[in-house]
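Exercise 7. Predict the joint structure of the components listed below.
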Amino acid sequence: SQQGEEDPQALSIQEGENATMNCSYKTSINNLQWYRQNSGRGLVHLILIRSNEREKHSGRLRVTLDTSKKSSSLLITASRAADTASYFCAIDTGTASKLTFGTGTRLQVTL
Amino acid sequence: DAGVIQSPRHEVTEMGQEVTLRCKPISGHDYLFWYRQTMMRGLELLIYFNNNVPIDDSGMPEDRFSAKMPNASFSTLKIQPSEPRDSAVYFCASSPGQGSQPQHFGDGTRLSIL
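Solution:
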Protein backbone atom coordinates (compact mmCIF):
# COMPACT_ATOMS: atom_id res chain seq x y z
CA SER A 1 0.00 0.00 0.00
CA GLN A 2 1.19 3.53 -0.68
CA GLN A 3 -0.58 4.75 2.42
CA GLY A 4 1.46 6.96 4.66
CA GLU A 5 1.98 5.79 8.18
CA GLU A 6 2.41 8.26 10.97
CA ASP A 7 4.55 7.74 14.00
CA PRO A 8 3.82 7.94 16.86
CA GLN A 9 0.14 7.02 16.88
CA ALA A 10 -0.36 9.22 19.92
CA LEU A 11 1.71 11.94 21.57
CA SER A 12 1.13 13.80 24.81
CA ILE A 13 3.17 16.89 25.66
CA GLN A 14 2.93 19.97 27.82
CA GLU A 15 2.20 23.42 26.52
CA GLY A 16 5.34 25.15 25.32
CA GLU A 17 7.09 21.96 24.28
CA ASN A 18 7.78 20.98 20.71
CA ALA A 19 5.88 18.16 19.00
CA THR A 20 7.35 16.06 16.23
CA MET A 21 5.37 13.69 14.07
CA ASN A 22 6.73 11.46 11.34
CA CYS A 23 5.24 10.06 8.16
CA SER A 24 6.66 7.22 6.11
CA TYR A 25 5.44 6.12 2.70
CA LYS A 26 6.29 3.48 0.12
CA THR A 27 6.17 4.99 -3.34
CA SER A 28 7.46 7.96 -5.31
CA ILE A 29 5.57 11.14 -4.64
CA ASN A 30 4.74 14.40 -6.38
CA ASN A 31 4.09 16.17 -3.10
CA LEU A 32 3.21 15.45 0.51
CA GLN A 33 0.66 17.39 2.52
CA TRP A 34 -0.11 17.68 6.22
CA TYR A 35 -3.60 18.14 7.60
CA ARG A 36 -5.04 18.73 11.07
CA GLN A 37 -8.36 17.38 12.34
CA ASN A 38 -9.97 18.72 15.46
CA SER A 39 -12.44 16.49 17.24
CA GLY A 40 -15.77 16.35 15.42
CA ARG A 41 -14.55 18.47 12.52
CA GLY A 42 -13.22 17.98 9.00
CA LEU A 43 -9.57 17.97 8.03
CA VAL A 44 -7.83 21.30 7.54
CA HIS A 45 -4.87 21.68 5.20
CA LEU A 46 -1.70 22.90 6.94
CA ILE A 47 1.19 22.74 4.53
CA LEU A 48 2.30 21.21 1.22
CA ILE A 49 5.87 20.22 0.41
CA ARG A 50 6.90 19.26 -3.11
CA SER A 51 9.18 16.35 -3.92
CA ASN A 52 12.02 18.71 -4.88
CA GLU A 53 11.82 20.59 -1.57
CA ARG A 54 13.57 19.53 1.62
CA GLU A 55 12.12 21.88 4.18
CA LYS A 56 9.21 24.28 4.49
CA HIS A 57 8.00 26.61 7.24
CA SER A 58 4.64 28.10 8.07
CA GLY A 59 4.36 29.99 11.33
CA ARG A 60 5.14 27.50 14.12
CA LEU A 61 5.13 24.60 11.68
CA ARG A 62 8.21 23.12 10.10
CA VAL A 63 8.00 20.27 7.62
CA THR A 64 10.92 18.28 6.27
CA LEU A 65 10.97 15.78 3.45
CA ASP A 66 13.56 13.11 2.75
CA THR A 67 12.63 11.37 -0.50
CA SER A 68 15.57 8.98 -0.24
CA LYS A 69 14.16 7.65 3.02
CA LYS A 70 10.56 8.13 1.91
CA SER A 71 9.75 10.03 5.05
CA SER A 72 8.54 13.41 6.23
CA SER A 73 8.29 15.06 9.62
CA LEU A 74 6.06 17.77 11.01
CA LEU A 75 7.41 19.86 13.87
CA ILE A 76 5.14 22.13 15.88
CA THR A 77 7.16 24.50 18.00
CA ALA A 78 6.01 26.07 21.27
CA SER A 79 2.85 24.02 21.30
CA ARG A 80 -0.43 25.34 22.66
CA ALA A 81 -3.51 23.62 24.04
CA ALA A 82 -5.29 24.62 20.83
CA ASP A 83 -2.88 22.40 18.87
CA THR A 84 -4.59 19.36 20.38
CA ALA A 85 -5.85 17.46 17.34
CA SER A 86 -5.06 14.57 15.02
CA TYR A 87 -2.49 15.20 12.33
CA PHE A 88 -2.42 13.36 9.01
CA CYS A 89 0.02 13.20 6.17
CA ALA A 90 -1.35 12.79 2.66
CA ILE A 91 0.52 11.60 -0.39
CA ASP A 92 0.12 12.71 -3.97
CA THR A 93 1.86 10.28 -6.28
CA GLY A 94 1.21 12.46 -9.32
CA THR A 95 -0.37 9.56 -11.21
CA ALA A 96 -3.96 10.41 -10.32
CA SER A 97 -5.71 13.48 -9.04
CA LYS A 98 -6.19 12.16 -5.54
CA LEU A 99 -4.49 11.92 -2.16
CA THR A 100 -3.84 8.92 0.04
CA PHE A 101 -4.04 9.74 3.73
CA GLY A 102 -2.00 8.21 6.51
CA THR A 103 -3.22 6.76 9.75
CA GLY A 104 -2.74 9.92 11.78
CA THR A 105 -1.05 11.02 15.01
CA ARG A 106 -3.22 12.10 17.93
CA LEU A 107 -1.57 15.01 19.70
CA GLN A 108 -2.61 16.04 23.18
CA VAL A 109 -1.22 19.29 24.55
CA THR A 110 -1.84 19.81 28.24
CA LEU A 111 -1.56 23.00 30.28
CA ASP B 1 -16.27 32.50 1.78
CA ALA B 2 -18.44 29.53 2.61
CA GLY B 3 -16.60 26.29 2.97
CA VAL B 4 -17.74 22.83 1.96
CA ILE B 5 -21.21 22.24 3.35
CA GLN B 6 -22.45 18.80 4.25
CA SER B 7 -25.86 17.72 5.45
CA PRO B 8 -27.09 16.25 7.62
CA ARG B 9 -24.41 16.50 10.34
CA HIS B 10 -25.80 13.45 12.08
CA GLU B 11 -27.98 10.63 10.82
CA VAL B 12 -29.33 7.71 12.79
CA THR B 13 -31.39 5.17 10.95
CA GLU B 14 -32.31 1.51 11.02
CA MET B 15 -30.68 -1.19 8.99
CA GLY B 16 -32.20 -1.57 5.55
CA GLN B 17 -33.19 2.06 5.18
CA GLU B 18 -31.92 4.27 2.39
CA VAL B 19 -29.48 6.97 3.43
CA THR B 20 -28.64 10.05 1.38
CA LEU B 21 -25.75 12.32 2.28
CA ARG B 22 -25.40 15.70 0.65
CA CYS B 23 -22.51 17.97 -0.19
CA LYS B 24 -22.11 21.47 -1.56
CA PRO B 25 -18.51 22.09 -2.65
CA ILE B 26 -16.76 25.43 -2.68
CA SER B 27 -17.77 27.44 -5.72
CA GLY B 28 -15.24 27.17 -8.52
CA HIS B 29 -13.67 23.95 -7.30
CA ASP B 30 -13.39 21.38 -10.08
CA TYR B 31 -12.79 18.32 -7.94
CA LEU B 32 -15.07 16.72 -5.37
CA PHE B 33 -14.11 13.81 -3.13
CA TRP B 34 -16.12 11.53 -0.85
CA TYR B 35 -14.28 9.89 2.06
CA ARG B 36 -15.26 7.55 4.88
CA GLN B 37 -13.51 7.62 8.25
CA THR B 38 -13.59 4.85 10.83
CA MET B 39 -11.35 3.94 13.74
CA MET B 40 -10.49 0.62 12.15
CA ARG B 41 -9.77 1.71 8.58
CA GLY B 42 -8.88 5.37 8.93
CA LEU B 43 -9.74 7.78 6.12
CA GLU B 44 -10.71 6.02 2.90
CA LEU B 45 -11.39 7.63 -0.47
CA LEU B 46 -14.67 6.32 -1.85
CA ILE B 47 -15.05 8.21 -5.11
CA TYR B 48 -14.05 11.47 -6.72
CA PHE B 49 -15.41 13.67 -9.49
CA ASN B 50 -13.82 16.10 -11.91
CA ASN B 51 -16.14 18.64 -13.49
CA ASN B 52 -19.14 16.59 -12.31
CA VAL B 53 -17.85 13.38 -13.94
CA PRO B 54 -16.92 10.38 -11.75
CA ILE B 55 -13.25 9.63 -12.30
CA ASP B 56 -12.42 6.89 -9.83
CA ASP B 57 -14.99 4.89 -7.86
CA SER B 58 -12.67 2.03 -6.95
CA GLY B 59 -13.07 2.85 -3.27
CA MET B 60 -16.83 2.37 -3.23
CA PRO B 61 -17.24 -0.71 -1.02
CA GLU B 62 -20.09 -2.36 -2.87
CA ASP B 63 -23.09 -1.83 -5.09
CA ARG B 64 -25.14 -0.58 -2.18
CA PHE B 65 -23.17 2.65 -2.45
CA SER B 66 -23.75 5.16 -5.23
CA ALA B 67 -22.73 8.78 -5.79
CA LYS B 68 -23.91 11.45 -8.16
CA MET B 69 -22.96 14.98 -9.04
CA PRO B 70 -25.77 16.45 -11.12
CA ASN B 71 -24.18 19.89 -11.21
CA ALA B 72 -21.11 21.77 -10.04
CA SER B 73 -22.68 22.80 -6.75
CA PHE B 74 -24.19 19.58 -5.46
CA SER B 75 -23.31 15.95 -4.87
CA THR B 76 -24.98 13.04 -3.10
CA LEU B 77 -23.75 9.79 -1.64
CA LYS B 78 -26.47 7.19 -1.28
CA ILE B 79 -26.46 3.91 0.61
CA GLN B 80 -29.30 1.51 -0.13
CA PRO B 81 -29.90 -0.67 1.77
CA SER B 82 -27.85 0.48 4.74
CA GLU B 83 -26.10 -1.95 7.11
CA PRO B 84 -24.62 -1.47 10.60
CA ARG B 85 -21.08 -1.79 9.19
CA ASP B 86 -21.71 1.38 7.17
CA SER B 87 -21.63 3.37 10.39
CA ALA B 88 -18.85 5.93 10.04
CA VAL B 89 -18.17 9.60 9.47
CA TYR B 90 -18.49 10.53 5.82
CA PHE B 91 -16.59 13.54 4.53
CA CYS B 92 -16.89 15.52 1.38
CA ALA B 93 -13.95 17.59 0.16
CA SER B 94 -13.29 19.80 -2.84
CA SER B 95 -10.22 21.23 -4.47
CA PRO B 96 -9.67 23.91 -7.10
CA GLY B 97 -7.46 21.85 -9.33
CA GLN B 98 -5.89 18.47 -9.53
CA GLY B 99 -5.68 16.22 -6.49
CA SER B 100 -2.26 17.60 -5.79
CA GLN B 101 -3.92 20.80 -4.68
CA PRO B 102 -4.93 21.17 -1.03
CA GLN B 103 -8.35 19.76 -0.35
CA HIS B 104 -11.04 21.59 1.63
CA PHE B 105 -13.15 19.36 3.83
CA GLY B 106 -16.65 19.70 5.16
CA ASP B 107 -17.34 18.84 8.79
CA GLY B 108 -18.74 15.45 7.86
CA THR B 109 -21.88 13.44 8.42
CA ARG B 110 -21.79 11.07 11.38
CA LEU B 111 -23.85 8.07 10.28
CA SER B 112 -25.14 5.45 12.68
CA ILE B 113 -26.98 2.42 11.35
CA LEU B 114 -28.83 0.51 14.06
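Discussion. Chain A has a mean pLDDT of 94.
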